């Protein structure tokens, strides 16, 4: 669940950051994809740490 939230949040933040910098549609897609990957990995690490601490 944390991973999916990270993916969505990362895509939104990346697209907004590209739009703020004056990027076109492809720039927004690229920034969104990169931020989604980074936030998804961070969410995965948070999920793993949470399961290890609670188990």
Which features would summarize this protein structure in a list?
single chain, 55 residues, mainly alpha, 2 helices, 89% helix, transmembrane helix, membrane, transmembrane
How can the largest sheet be summarized? none
Structural class: mainly alpha
Strand-residue proportion: under 5%
Oligomer: single chain
Order of helical and strand elements? HH
The helix content is over 70%
Mean pLDDT: 97
Q: Provide the domain count.
A: 1
Number of separate strands: 0
* First-last Cα distance: 17 Å
* Rg over C-alpha atoms, rounded to the nearest angstrom: 13 Å
What can you see in these coordinates?
The protein has helices at about 1-20, 25-55. With about 55 residues, the chain is mainly alpha-helical. α1 (about 1-20) packs antiparallel against α2 (about 25-55). The longest helix is centred in the last third of the chain and has 30 residues, at about 25-55. The radius of gyration is 13 Å and the shape is rod-shaped.
């Amino acid at each position: 669940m944390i991973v999916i939230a990270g993916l969505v949040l990362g895509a939104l933040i990346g697209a907004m950051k590209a739009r703020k910098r004056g990027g076109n549609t492809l720039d927004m897609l690229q920034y969104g994809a990169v931020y989604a990957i980074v936030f998804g990995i961070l969410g995965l690490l948070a999920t793993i740490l949470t399961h290890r601490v609670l188990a």
